[in-house]
């Protein structure tokens, strides 16, 4: 596991989530950031800050990335979402094209 | 090939999502972390958050009931050779109302 293969996602409260790039790229928005040539200075340092996304939601999104990879490789489990975070999670997912 | 599970390794405000297999040992996990945190395996200690049980280097994840999405606390060796206390920041302590 190499540092270059990971990306650090930072929430509005400054909490950091270090995930595999392959997982983060489940989000089309993050994929574009990581693969666009020459742009987005954040991604060159392997860090993306999301001032609009709270820690709770960002962690849930990271869990979703991994669930998505596991599901794609054939594991059939459910992804649990607490009802009270549904709206905020949907707005973040919409922004991230996840 | 995707790994079967992931665990969440937490210290202070950082969470590392680590992909692994239930057959891997604690030492295997520490070797993955070593790349990310620039600390040798011998300076890392992993503790199960739910039971405060310290994970044994030679045992596998399955043997120690570490499953998909499990939260594990990371602590590092301090200058006096002792390990620091487990500390995982809570989001409530960082919520700003500005």
From TrEMBL, chain A:
Subcellular locations according to the entry: Nucleus
Keywords tagged on the record: Nucleus
SUPFAM superfamilies for the chain: POZ domain
CDD domains documented for this protein: BTB_POZ_EloC (cd18321)
InterPro entries per UniProt: ELC1, SKP1-like, SKP1/BTB/POZ_sf, Skp1_comp_POZ
GO CC annotation: nucleus
Start and end residues of each SKP1 component POZ domain: 6-69
Major place of residence: nucleus
SMART domains cross-referenced by the UniProt entry: Skp1
GO biological process: jasmonic acid mediated signaling pathway; ubiquitin-dependent protein catabolic process
Annotated metabolic or biological route of this protein: Protein modification; protein ubiquitination
Homology family: Belongs to the SKP1 family.
Entry protein name: Elongin-C
Organism the protein comes from: Vanilla planifolia
UniProtKB/TrEMBL annotation, chain B:
UniProt-listed SUPFAM superfamilies: Ubiquitin-like
Domain Ubiquitin-like, residue spans: 3-81
Signal peptide: none
Name of the molecule in the record: Ubiquitin-like domain-containing protein
Species of origin: Vanilla planifolia
């Amino acid at each position: 596991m190499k540092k270059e293969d990971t990306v650090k996602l930072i929430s509005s409260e400054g909490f950091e989530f270090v995930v595999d790039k392959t997982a983060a790229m489940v989000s089309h928005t993050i994929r574009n950031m990581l693969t666009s040539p020459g742009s987005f200075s954040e991604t060159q340092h392997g860090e993306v800050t999301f001032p609009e996304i709270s820690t709770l939601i960002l962690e849930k999104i990271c869990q979703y990335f991994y669930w998505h990879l596991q599901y794609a490789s054939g594991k059939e489990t459910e992804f649990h979402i607490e009802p009270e975070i549904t709206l905020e999670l949907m707005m973040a997912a919409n922004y991230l094209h996840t | 090939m995707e790994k079967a599970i992931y665990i969440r390794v937490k210290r202070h405000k950082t969470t590392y999502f680590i992909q692994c297999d239930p057959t891997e040992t604690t030492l295997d996990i520490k070797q993955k972390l070593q790349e990310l945190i620039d600390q040798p395996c011998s300076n890392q200690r992993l503790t199960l958050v739910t039971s405060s049980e310290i994970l044994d280097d030679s045992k596998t994840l399955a043997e120690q009931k570490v499953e998909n999405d499990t939260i594990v606390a990371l602590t590092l060796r301090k200058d006096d050779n002792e390990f620091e206390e487990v500390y995982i920041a809570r989001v409530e302590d960082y919520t700003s109302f500005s």
